[in-house]
Design brief:
binds fe (ii) ion, 6-stranded mixed beta sheet, single chain
Length: 322
């Protein structure tokens, strides 16, 4: 007999791993000239692969079962950056089958790199075979792991000089509504994983926000979700969207590689503990001495822990429990 147990989901984001070794100057064309110089001067010294390695060590030591990354694994979408980032993600012990990554705007920086993220990070965004789209579309990427259903979206698009906005797009929104309403997920804890924030003032920003945030909110209002994770702002952001059964949390967290010991932006990630319900595939409960399926109750969020980089100890430790 299967008894349900709590599952933990780590959320990390915006590690912006910088590897200029091997990249050639001609890579820095188009938008990269403007963004690249700025990044080389500023960002490169703040986001350190060593900090991300320590984050991965922490996830591995805790034995966390599932990982979600909400994008911006690179800075300039250089092929060498994607390979460098991939090598560091490959240190996650539970592997790509249990680590879902979606692209950020920096992973789709200029038009000619469209599809490179999906190629280099293919095992990290592959859907379950039974959830693949008949027309070969890559997104939404749906994975069901026990009572967790992870729904990855792309919001990334080449956005023009000094811009960073994103869109879900009408077609992807229609598929998202279809997935979230699918009866196969009726007893699951549904987590939407995307780069851009979908609620609050950052979602409404013309320059950096989610252009179709209102249409996204309409989908959530209609069919619901249990948690929406995002990155992009490198800030601890906690908002919510209305759902059919009450508010749906919309959470962002700081970069997972920020090395400067500034309290507001120091590297962080979160660990969500989800307690089992009674409707998922493991939802068999002993009733009257027999295992029977009890009435449908979705799994629930039991604990949200923020873990923070401690430079003096070169490790991550619990900072707060929400
Ligand atoms: Fe970012
Ligand atoms: Fe971003």
């Amino acid at each position: 007999m299967l008894y349900p147990t709590p599952v933990r989901l780590a959320h990390l984001t915006d590690v912006h791993l910088l590897a200029l070794d091997g990249s050639r100057l001609r890579d820095f064309v188009n938008k990269r000239w403007a963004g690249g110089l700025n990044i080389l001067v500023n960002r490169g010294r703040h986001h350190l692969a060593e900090v991300f390695d320590a984050l991965v060590d922490d996830i591995n030591a805790l034995g966390i079962e599932q990982v979600a990354c909400t994008g911006d694994v690179t800075n300039l979408s250089l092929a060498s950056e994607f390979r460098f980032a991939r090598a560091h993600f490959d240190r996650i012990a539970v592997g790509p089958a249990n680590t879902l990554c979606v692209p950020g705007n920096h992973d789709n920086y200029v038009a000619e790199v469209a599809g490179v993220f999906e190629e280099v990070f293919a095992p990290y965004c592959a859907p379950d075979p039974e959830w693949s789209w008949p027309d070969g579309a890559a997104w939404p990427a749906v994975r069901v792991r026990g009572e967790l259903a992870l729904v990855g979206l792309t919001t990334s698009q080449p956005s023009g000089l000094l811009m960073g906005h994103g869109t879900v797009g009408a077609e992807q929104l229609a598929r998202l509504a279809q997935v979230l309403a699918d009866l196969r997920l009726a007893g699951q804890f549904r987590v939407v994983v995307m780069h851009h924030p979908s609620a609050g003032r950052h979602a409404r920003s013309f320059r950096r926000g989610l252009r179709d945030h209102a249409a996204f909110a309409d989908v959530i209002r209609g069919v619901g979700a249990e948690l929406i994770l995002h990155g992009h702002e490198h800030l601890d952001l906690r908002n919510q969207l209305a759902g059919p059964d009450g508010p749906v949390p919309v959470h962002g967290v700081q970069s997972g590689s920020y090395a400067i010991d500034s309290g507001r932006r120091r590297a962080r990630y979160r660990v969500y503990t989800i307690e089992p319900g009674s409707g998922g595939p493991t939802g068999l409960r002993p009733v009257g001495g027999e295992a029977k399926r009890s009435p449908l109750i979705r799994p629930r969020l039991a604990r949200v822990e923020t873990r923070t980089w401690r430079p003096a100890r070169a490790n991550f430790e619990v900072e707060a429990v929400l």
